[in-house]
Design goal:
With 225 residues, the chain is an alpha/beta fold. Helix content is 36%, strand content 18%. The chain has a single domain, classed as Alpha-Beta Barrel (TIM Barrel). An 8-stranded parallel sheet has the order 1-8-7-6-5-4-3-2. Bound molecules: D-xylitol-5-phosphate and zinc ion (ZN).
Length: 225
């Protein structure tokens, strides 16, 4: 019954795209549901990517919803810049703030969807109360910081916990998975209960990125059927 209404969303990460040609790289994935934009500050994660000016340039060249994943410290200070840059949704890490509920409320007050993310070693049980404050929970399936890492299947237990809780409470909260998602791992993610699938190297490393977006969506649908 549930599978009839299941609509997996594929969110390619431009972290694996050619940064010198982002407009063309985004034009290569017309089937994408969201564009995933990985922001890294060199402090919360040991890597630096880009910030709000680049996110703004991305949103200017596409109508596809922009999904910003902030791997940064002190998200309360910065989320507004990503709303102003045109984000459809902004996700920040629970490990980066003492008060994730207020950061989510701040995003909502600015008219933006709010997501919270957990690193692979962070349990979800302490954060189940947050489900009333957010539109999305991002479960990281690699240590955040770099594309092209190996999928960590153990995190799917957290996805199952979230799926059960969201369904039990009848909440409208999406579960997103990010890290090592490809044609061989997406099925298990869909089965565990994920709704939104981030894929960087799998999409941009494919000879035809848009065909891979479609193949990933088909795999997720198959797994859930
Ligand atoms: C990692 C980023 C991911 C990354 C995924 O810190 O949050 O979005 O781009 O890359 P792949 O799909 O290659 O694991
Ligand atoms: Zn990401």
């Amino acid at each position: 019954m549930e599978s009839m209404s299941y609509q997996p969303l594929i969110a390619p990460s431009i972290l694996s795209a050619d940064f010198a040609r982002l407009d063309r790289e985004i034009a290569r994935i017309p089937s994408a549901d969201w564009i995933h934009v990985d922001v890294m500050d060199g402090h919360f994660v040991p890597n630096l990517s880009f910030g709000a000016p680049v996110a703004k340039a991305v949103s200017a060249v596409t109508d596809t919803p922009m999904d910003c994943h902030l791997m940064i410290e002190d998200p309360a200070r910065w989320v507004g810049d990503y709303v102003d840059a045109g984000a459809y949704s902004v996700t920040f890490h629970v490990e980066a703030t003492d008060d994730p509920a207020s950061v989510a409320d701040l995003l909502h007050s600015k008219g933006c969807r709010a997501g919270v993310s957990v690193k692979p070693g962070t349990p979800v049980e302490p954060y189940l109360g947050l489900l009333d404050h957010v539109d999305l929970v991002l479960v990281m399936s690699v240590e955040p910081g770099f594309g092209g890492q190996k999928f960590m299947p153990d995190v799917l237990d957290k996805v199952r916990t979230l799926r059960a809780e969201i369904d039990r409470r009848g909440l409208d909260v999406l579960i997103q998975i990010d890290g090592g998602v490809d044609a061989t791992t997406i099925g298990a993610c869909a089965e565990a209960g994920c709704d939104v699938f981030v894929a960087g190297s799998a999409v941009y490393g494919a000879p035809e990125p848009d065909a891979m977006v479609q193949a990933l969506r088909a795999e997720a649908l198959d797994a859930r059927a």
